[in-house]
């Protein structure tokens, strides 16, 4: 007997309905990728891997057949493997199993032919696991990154970008934006100190190649840090802190600049996170400066997505420093929808995570789209 969803509809019936909607969206857009994105917008519980299958109007068994066709029937994959991969992409509790890099390559080719099996749309393996990239095995992450870089170098440049490339301004000097497009500024209301200014002047980081990591230039990285400094100054009251903590190396660079430029060279802490799929732990190499009782701390992180890294970190900080007041400064915050100029703080994927952490105030330099941004020199 088929299991029932909360609405009384069986998973099989829901799958058939989503495949029907996916095919309809494909007919309207003429693109598997665009249809998959629209499906994820309508149904946030559907991961990218599953949305692309629905956009091809395939059942799991049919997707397995398409997979075997791509390999010339040198494989004998079944629908259970497709189900295990999609379960992994959807869940965060260790269920299912991740696809290998080679399997993602084959799936991308299989889905690029569309519902009729005759299309030639370019779909990258990274398109399929946009929101789950960091949960792949490190070896597969590296393979995917190298493949994407090579794929990007072969692809023609999109001359119809949604935003205009413009220089980054610091004081009275224009700094070339190199390969990054800086989107327009907009105001975003974020949690802040009592009687503080909640309006953050944020900018967007549009990705001209959706589904691929956006590699930041040093100029763009520095511009974001300067934006955070300006937001701290604009909060409407003096922010004095006892230390700046950086999460991993990219966060440590941010903390170093903020401590030096804004907080009188206050002490700097380092929080090295070890990730193993869905597990997070702090490495013994982490550094904790000696601080006064109930200290005021700025926690710096490079990006906020779906994973509750900052929640874990803030709990650990409060255990070590009881009564600590924590400010949070993040370079890039991922949005739920494709539009990066969000109208509300709750339109960010990490909004609930940041609220639950009970920060004194939140500062955000830019918004970004999946799968995220990569700092210069691949700082981690």
What would you say this structure looks like, in words?
It is a single chain. With 380 residues, the chain is α/β, with parallel strands linked by helices. The protein folds into two domains: 11-154, no CATH class; 168-378, Rossmann fold, CATH 3.40.50. The protein is 37% helix and 17% strand. It has a seven-stranded mixed beta sheet with strand order 3-4-12-11-10-6-7. A two-stranded antiparallel sheet has the order 1-2. Strands 5-13 form a two-stranded parallel sheet. The protein starts with 10 loop residues before the first helix and ends in a 6-residue tail after the last strand.
Radius of gyration: 22 Å
Structurally, the number of domains stands at 2
User: How far apart lie the N and C ends?
Assistant: 47 Å
Secondary structure: number of strands:
13
Determine the structural class based on helices, strands and strand pairing: alpha/beta
State the helix count.
12
Q: How is the biggest beta sheet arranged? A: 7 strands, mixed
Summarize the model shown.
By secondary structure, the chain is an alpha/beta fold.
